[in-house]
């Protein structure tokens, strides 16, 4: 009984948990997460503006810890320094992508709002069933009234791709709405 307690005590420190992680033990990774998550979140929160981004940075760091576990360098038997460094890298990447996203939004032209159809519940439901890439083109073109060239610029795709996605989406929507009408 004392031996089991002693082994458990040894395995409960970072070095013991890390040895289990190296053997592929996901529960040991979860234990490390529980142990260090608050400290890592606090670190990420100091580097990022949004709470959700800080949570994402911690989650990505643990994903990377698991993925790169064979090459992670420990300090005094603990992966915490590696995790702190990885959280900082993730935070920089999240800030950079946030800046790119805001710049993209700043470049997007502002269109006059178009009033939606009177009974749009069926149309919106059909639109939500489209693949995300086709949804974006339909929303920008049909609902917001942007020209194809501006849509191509904002989405970073060729004008021909905008046209083909729009045609494909309209065909799908027509088919779905015709089926809805036949059922009614």
TrEMBL record:
The keyword Transcription applies. Residues 127-181 form the HTH luxR-type domain. It comes from Microbacterium trichothecenolyticum (Aureobacterium trichothecenolyticum). CDD domains: Sigma70_r4. Belongs to the sigma-70 factor family. ECF subfamily. SMART domains: HTH_LUXR. This is RNA polymerase sigma factor (Sigma-70 family). The lineage of its organism: Bacteria, Bacillati, Actinomycetota, Actinomycetes, Micrococcales. Keywords: Sigma factor, Transcription, Transcription regulation. It comes from the Bacteria. SUPFAM superfamilies: Sigma2 domain of RNA polymerase sigma factors (SSF88946), Sigma3 and sigma4 domains of RNA polymerase sigma factors (SSF88659). InterPro entries: RNA_pol_sigma-70-like, RNA_pol_sigma-70_dom, RNA_pol_sigma70_r2, RNA_pol_sigma70_r4_t2, RNA_pol_sigma_r2, RNA_pol_sigma_r3/r4-like, Tscrpt_reg_LuxR_C, WH-like_DNA-bd_sf. Pfam families: Sigma70_r2, Sigma70_r4_2.
């Amino acid at each position: 009984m004392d031996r089991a307690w002693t082994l458990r005590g040894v395995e409960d420190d970072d070095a013991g948990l890390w040895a289990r992680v190296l053997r592929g033990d996901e529960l040991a990774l979860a234990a490390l997460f529980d142990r260090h998550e608050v400290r890592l979140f606090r670190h990420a929160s100091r580097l990022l503006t949004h709470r959700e981004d800080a949570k994402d940075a911690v989650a990505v760091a643990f994903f990377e810890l698991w993925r790169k576990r064979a090459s992670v360098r420990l300090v005094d038997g603990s992966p915490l320094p590696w995790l702190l460094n990885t959280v900082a890298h993730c935070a920089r990447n999240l800030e950079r992508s946030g800046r790119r996203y805001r710049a993209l939004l700043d470049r997007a032209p502002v269109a006059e709002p178009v009033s939606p159809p009177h009974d749009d519940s069926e149309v919106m439901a059909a639109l939500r069933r489209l693949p995300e890439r086709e949804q974006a083109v339909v929303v920008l073109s049909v609902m917001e009234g942007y020209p194809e060239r501006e849509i191509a610029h904002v989405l970073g795709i060729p004008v021909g791709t905008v046209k083909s996605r729009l045609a494909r989406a309209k065909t799908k929507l027509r088919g779905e709405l015709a089926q809805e009408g036949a059922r009614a």
